[in-house]
Protein: 2EXR domain-containing protein
Amino acid sequence: MAAFHLFPRLPTELRIEIWRLCLPRRVLELDYQRDDLLLGPKPPCAKNAALTDSNTRIPPALSRVNREARGVALESWQPLPEPPSDSPDLAEWASEIIYGGAWLTQSPRVDRHRAQVVHLNWAPTQDVDADWPAQGDPLRYAMWVADQMPETEISIDASLLEEFQYRPNSEMHPWTREEFGDLVRRRNAFTVVVLDPLFIHGDFHKAARTGLFGLLGDAPVQIVHVDEHARLNRFVELGGNEGMRLSHDPFEDRLKDRLQALSDRLKDRLQELRDTLTAVFGPDDNDVAPRFVPAVMFRYCPHNCAPK
Structure:
């Protein structure tokens, strides 16, 4: 890419706006994914937890360009907001996220003006580190966090809905089915990730040049609605490029097969999602149930950790 040597001579206000356009729009992940349960004993990415770290704690790459760019990058890069003290269910779950496990020394951070999606990496079947239900209310907390930022979606994993289809009375649930229904009806729509995460491994510069993971490659987690066909295809095509690898067993070597495999799997999962929603909300509850928008999660890893 050719250098633009006149950039320092532009008016300060214009330079700042250009810097802002380079900032990533990240998915704000709440909690880690349970790789052993979600991805099996041989996960397709050995650095998955590190991806969550870089996606939620590392400042944008722009902060390392120069002093002016750093000021722009950090102007709205803030710790997660603290829930109100009179909401113990929110505070308990917030403490689980911020002070538990690998997040002991630093809380997750978010650009409140550029977060597109708040994604809850949690379902009761993944909460198996202890023999008691989740402390606090994870979904209500995710909804509260999204409410602190403008025009932000909430994303959940399909397994959270399926819990109430197949195990409606489990003691591991923080809510009864009725309580869960009442909670989700407080919002008009949810994004639902219907497949296991799809990992793309390979050359960082090649991935960054596509802009799929941010203009500077520092938005490694992306959630794409299934009706965004062109964007879905671009991610799959990136995984098929030389030096790149799309890590998912059902996909064949040829790009056409990968696209068809993704389409076939989505058809199956969308029908399963419709069945789940009918089971959870009832066949006659469409008028009051929120809209659930199916999506796919892509995670980019620059490390050579994809299984051969």
